[in-house]
Amino acid sequence: MVMMNQGALLSWYRRVERPLPWRLNPSPWSILLSEILLQQTQMERGIRYHTALLERFPTVQSMAESSVDEVLHLWQGAGYYSRARRLHALAVEVVQSHGGVLPEDYDSLLKLPGIGPYTAAAVASIAFMEPVACVDGNIRRVMARQTNQEEPSPTQVQSFANEQLHENAPGDWNQAMMELGALLCRPRNPSCEECPVHDTCLGRSRARELPRPKKIKKKTEQYNCIVRVDDRGLPELHQRPDTGLFAGLWGPEMGSDLGTEGCDHVGTIRHLLSHRELIVSVWKSKGKNGIDSETVALSTLDRRILELVGLL
Ligand code: SF4
Fold it and tell me: What's the CATH code of the domain at 176?
């Protein structure tokens, strides 16, 4: 097993560490929010949502006392809305079962709603200094290149991360590994000449080919969406069911076999989700009891639909 130079990587990390809000104010709640947001949201947007969420919900109690709708409202546009619903469920559970204090160890964190192995390890190591190794896409890429493997299995990546872990600085170490993947060991254009651990890197000469990309074929789904507009120019909006597409968010009527007789076709929107491509034919018709769309939580797709119809 290759052993990376821990000292070199940690001092590089401490030099380049970005002044992110959850690093400047590293409370466990702020760290947990950042880890949940950043899993599927780009850094810049993640920072914006993190600031807004922390301002409205400075503590886990304040989120537990709010409604899930309020959390969804602030989450609008961040995508993967089930994360917002589970975050609210987590806050309620922490208040009910842990006296409002986040549990401090990996195993207890893992039992909370919405917390998987990555988030539990990140929060336990960064907020509570528990020596547990994180694995994410960045670390998988660094591992594949350091060990010169095209398709490392999840178990191999986890063993690599466990073996490399710096036991006395687990939080900084995990962040250093992820920063290395994000800033230098980038997917297409790695900066090997600046890399603090290039001397142990067995795959450096063919880094761009490693790891071999996973092929994800997007499934295409077709929908009709009818925007019914009342006399005041406001759209009828309904809250979507608790499960399925955009659960709990609001939007105009949408379905795969929705009849559109008597409606006017406005246009078609192609909307990409992580594993799905949605083709939405947008229709308009007369309605009643419309509501102000700014008062409810909308997905990005629903915003695009309302924009297309000229209502945003
Ligand atoms: S030498 Fe290049 S490929 Fe290897 S870990 Fe560093 S940046 Fe990645």
Answer: 1.10.340.30
Helix 6-16 / helix 170-179 crossing angle, nearest 10 deg: 70
Rounded Cα distance between 117 and 124, Å, is: 10
Tell me: the pLDDT tens digits for 102-156? 999 999 999 999 999 999 999 999 999 999 999 999 999 999 999 999 999 999 9
Q: Which of 152, 185, 209 is the last residue of a domain?
A: 209
Query: Could you tell me if the CB of 198 is within 6 A of ligand 1?
Result: yes
Q: Tell me whether residue 167 is one of the annotated catalytic residues.
A: no
- Domain limits for position 282: 219-308
Residue 25 has pLDDT above 90, yes or no: no
State whether 84 and 123 are in the same domain. yes
Q: Which amino acid is at 57?
A: F
Query: Sorting pLDDT into bands at 50, 70 and 90, what band is 238?
Result: very high
Q: 192: Cβ below 6 Å to ligand 1?
A: yes
